[in-house]
């Protein structure tokens, strides 16, 4: 074990020296450009600490592969294949960080927020892979042949394992399993993870199941009133959404086709009787039937409850919806009408799934398609009023002009309104 460890330490010291030289080269270039505000601690943490973890993991994997390879050139070739597989297969197709060697969510650092909340999940994933790498070191120690042994590498490892079992390896393997299970519980149980194949299947099911509603007239959103309560210390947001909907078509509307994010938005409440005839949480769809049809030019009001609360962390880390400071809140608002943007856009995939090919350039005569926006069918210019409440020491910004500011207890409220639709 000590023989293998000393080799790995020497390799990583060499890598650290190169990284330090690169860091000082960057500092020298900045000085030459009259920039003198350097955060040396952050540079060392980013380059040698957090950034150096990937180099450490790669060095251990390379060492293990060289140990089990018949000669160094085959080991080099295997590492080249690994890099190609990682870039063109593992990352695009698998995407889950538990399946990509060294994978972890992105994190960032800023003067406003410091290290983002994602530093926690990042370190958890990296710890998982470091524990797995320790097992690779143990395996390399067992498989390492010194001198002229005259037996196969597997036989040599079997003899060493039987004669000298490692309790340390068992403990590390147990910790790796526990930590991996905890990460999986957060990413796949508390949160939703969709592989590329699963995401494509959901798009396919949406189109096949609801394409028939693509030409059914739906009301246009005319006005939005949005009241948001941000709780940065709890990473939570609540809100109320009020839509004013108007039938801008030439025929009565008998029901509503609603795209809704069930994780954030509760069922709609209309100011006239409407029966919920379908609620599909898998595809994020609700359909309502009006007791009295909505006549041309007539308006109706729809209300929604909005909730955004952090539950564990996903494969991408913590939700960035609400932060302790520097929140950039982007609620997924409900939309009306079949959403063409939720279809599979790649014609190669559509051909494979036997779906009709689509042209992203709409025909001049396709008035219904041209009337589609990210807020639904027929939505053009809208009036919007947004009131944001947050802790009293923070300032909220939203689209439009600031028309009112007031305080209630330890909370501050800011109201914005667009002056033109």
Describe it.
The protein has 421 residues and is of the alpha+beta class. Helices cover 40% and strands 22% of the residues. It starts with a helix and ends with a strand.
Radius of gyration: 28 Å
Main beta-sheet annotation: 7 strands, mixed
What share of the residues does DSSP label as strand, in percent? 15-25%
Tell me the distance between the termini: 71 Å
Q: Which parts are unreliable, with pLDDT below 50 for 5 consecutive residues or more? A: none
What would you call the structural class? alpha+beta
Number of strands: 15
Please bin the fraction of helical residues. Answer: 25-40%
Strand order, sheet with most strands = 6-9-4-3-13-15-14
General form: globular
Q: Give the number of helices.
A: 10
Average pLDDT, rounded to a whole number, is: 85
H/E element string? HHHHEEHHHHEEEEEEEEHHEEEEE
Layout of helices and strands:
Blueprint: H1 2-32, H2 40-50, H3 52-68, H4 72-94, E1 109-110, E2 114-115, H5 119-143, H6 153-163, H7 167-190, H8 196-210, E3 220-231, E4 236-246, E5 253-259, E6 269-270, E7 274-280, E8 285-294, E9 299-309, E10 335-336, H9 347-352, H10 367-370, E11 372-373, E12 376-377, E13 383-391, E14 401-408, E15 411-417
Parallel strand pairs: 3-13
Antiparallel strand pairs: 1-2, 3-4, 4-9, 5-8, 5-10, 6-9, 7-8, 11-12, 13-15, 14-15
Helix pairs in contact: 1-2, 1-3, 3-4, 3-5, 5-7
């Amino acid at each position: 074990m000590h023989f293998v460890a000393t080799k790995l330490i020497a390799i990583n010291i060499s890598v650290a020296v190169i990284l330090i030289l690169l860091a000082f080269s960057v500092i020298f270039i900045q000085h030459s450009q009259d920039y003198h505000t350097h955060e040396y601690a952050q540079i060392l943490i980013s380059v040698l600490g957090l950034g150096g973890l990937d180099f450490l993991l790669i060095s251990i994997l390379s060492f293990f592969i060289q140990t089990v390879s018949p000669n160094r050139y085959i080991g080099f070739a295997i590492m080249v294949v690994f890099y190609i597989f990682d870039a063109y297969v593992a990352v695009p197709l698998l995407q889950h960080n538990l399946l990509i060697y060294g994978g972890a969510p992105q994190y960032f650092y800023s003067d406003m927020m410091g290290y983002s909340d994602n530093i926690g999940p990042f370190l958890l994933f990296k710890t998982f892979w470091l524990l797995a790498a320790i097992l690779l070191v143990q395996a390399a120690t067992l498989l390492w042949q010194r001198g002229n042994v005259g037996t196969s590498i597997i036989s040599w490892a079997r003899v060493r394992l039987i004669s000298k079992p490692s309790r340390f390896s068992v403990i590390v393997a147990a910790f790796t399993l526990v930590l991996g299970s905890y990460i999986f519980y957060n990413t796949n149980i508390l949160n939703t993870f969709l592989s590329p194949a699963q995401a494509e299947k959901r798009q396919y099911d949406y189109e096949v199941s609801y394409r028939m509603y693509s030409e059914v007239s739906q009301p246009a959103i005319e006005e939005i009133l949005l009241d948001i309560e941000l709780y940065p210390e709890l990473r939570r947001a609540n809100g109320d959404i009020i839509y004013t909907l108007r039938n801008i078509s030439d025929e009565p509307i008998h029901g509503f086709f609603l795209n809704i994010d069930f994780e954030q938005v509760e069922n709609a409440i209309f100011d006239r009787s409407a029966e919920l005839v379908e609620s599909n949480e898998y595809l994020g769809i609700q359909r309502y039937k009006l007791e009295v049809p909505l006549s041309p030019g007539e308006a109706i009001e729809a209300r929604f409850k909005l909730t955004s609360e952090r539950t564990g962390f996903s494969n991408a880390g913590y939700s960035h919806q609400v932060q302790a400071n520097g929140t950039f809140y982007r609620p997924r608002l409900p939309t009306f009408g079949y959403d063409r943007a939720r279809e599979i856009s790649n014609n190669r995939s559509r051909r494979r799934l036997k779906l009709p090919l689509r042209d992203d350039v709409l025909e001049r005569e396709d008035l219904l398609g041209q009337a589609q926006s990210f807020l639904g069918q027929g939505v053009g210019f809208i009036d919007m009023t947004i009131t944001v409440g947050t802790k009293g020491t923070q300032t909220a910004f939203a689209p439009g002009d600031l028309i009112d500011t007031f305080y209630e207890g330890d909370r501050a409220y800011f109201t914005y309104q667009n002056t033109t639709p």
